[in-house]
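Translate structure to sequence.
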């Protein structure tokens, strides 16, 4: 339970191997899932226990009540001191503020570690909803262009730009 996070509407619980099919189904249109996507999700989940143990973060399954509505995670792509933020929502969870709420809780948790210097995320420039989520939670557009061989927007937040919710009185997420 040490890594479970709660927000006013959501419960974020570390994903485990039993969640792979559920995670695949959250973002898949009807039909057979893309095998490469399934392999990427399985690899993220298989590394999850070690990442939580080593870094205090990983991939969380996002629930609103009993329903799984998405996922959010941090991965140490280049360094654990400035990990990459990842998230996705099921179609029925979109447009309700869940992505901002879940990602904000994860970032608050991340900056609770004193040695963390920042967080970054990359999105497709045509995914305006994702761009708005990143801006809403405080990340700033740093680069727009080719990233990993495709058009992208890269957003970043340094520790000095983060507003501590406890100091600000917001108290977004709490741990149990």
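Result:
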């Amino acid at each position: 339970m040490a890594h479970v996070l709660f927000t006013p509407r959501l419960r974020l619980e570390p994903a485990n191997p039993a969640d792979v099919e559920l995670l695949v189904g959250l973002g898949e249109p009807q039909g057979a899932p893309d095998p490469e996507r399934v392999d990427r999700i399985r690899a993220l989940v298989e590394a999850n226990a070690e990442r939580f143990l080593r870094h205090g973060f990983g991939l969380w399954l996002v629930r609103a009540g009993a329903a799984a509505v998405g996922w959010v995670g941090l991965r140490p792509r280049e360094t654990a001191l400035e990990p990459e933020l990842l998230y996705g929502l099921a179609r029925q969870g979109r447009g309700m503020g869940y992505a901002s709420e879940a990602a904000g809780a994860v970032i608050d948790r991340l900056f609770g570690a004193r040695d963390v210097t920042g967080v970054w995320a990359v999105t497709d420039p045509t995914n305006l909803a994702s761009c708005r989520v990143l801006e809403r939670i405080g990340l700033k557009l740093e680069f727009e262009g080719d990233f990993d061989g495709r058009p992208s927007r890269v957003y970043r937040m340094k520790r000095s730009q983060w507003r501590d919710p406890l100091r600000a009185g917001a108290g977004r997420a709490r741990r149990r």
